[in-house]
Design goal:
alpha/beta; binds magnesium ion; 7-stranded mixed sheet; binds guanosine-5'-triphosphate; 32% helix; Rossmann fold
Length: 181
């Protein structure tokens, strides 16, 4: 699909680089639990503002991870790196322009098969990705069993199961994020 190296310039140490701070971006389809996980990661200092020149609201907050401070950016729901909606265009431009140290691709684990193509796009674009399998409570209730280790081996990225609403898996996720900062 030609996503390879699309974002590589973000991570080069050259004069074009605008990566001054540590940033964590949350991406994923609508309604998968991005904002719940955003709230779990951030503390009191949350701001909501319109993305420049648009009416799309972006939340930003601060996470303290193992003594390191990082900005957390909650993006609007998006399905792909190829933008169709304004929200997707903004999501893509956050990934391009904000140069996050790590991207959390948050998926509804019940529908993992439908969501993996976006994970693969992010990986192929050279972005630093953690796959977050959220809604594990509902997934387990449905009797679905996901082989996390095998998924990690196949994708070559960390995969962390979570239940956003009860904070299950958040400690493991925080530790994994810290490795990227
Ligand atoms: N059962 C269950 N519900 C969850 C979990 N995480 C989030 N939810 C619920 O799922 C719904 C959607 O969560 P949000 O955090 O608003 O999802 P979002 O991805 O930010 O949605 P958009 O901003 O619309 O893209 C809410 O009702 C949450 O309470 C989870 O792990 N398990
Ligand atoms: Mg949200």
């Amino acid at each position: 699909m030609g996503f390879k190296n699309l974002f590589r310039r973000c991570h080069k140490d050259n004069s074009e680089s605008i990566c001054l701070d540590k940033k964590i971006a949350l991406v994923g389809n609508p309604n998968v639990g991005k904002s719940v996980i955003f709230n779990n990661l951030t503390g009191m200092y949350v701001t909501v503002s319109n993305y420049p020149g648009t009416t799309v609201e972006i939340s930003k907050g601060v996470a303290k991870l193992d003594g390191k401070m990082a900005e957390v950016i909650d993006t609007p729901g998006m399905y792909s790196l190829i933008p169709i909606t304004e929200e997707e265009r903004i999501g893509r431009s956050i990934l391009l322009n904000e140069c996050p140290s790590v991207i959390l691709h948050i998926v509804d684990a019940k529908n993992l098969d439908r969501m993996l193509s976006f994970t693969i796009q992010l990986i192929e674009a050279g972005l630093p990705v953690i796959l977050v399998l959220n809604m594990m409570d509902e997934t387990e209730r449905m009797g679905l069993n996901i082989d996390i280790k095998k998924l990690e081996d196949k994708l070559g990225i960390p995969v962390i199961p979570t239940v956003g609403i009860s904070k299950k898996g958040m400690e493991t996720l925080r530790n994994k994020i810290t490795e990227f900062l």
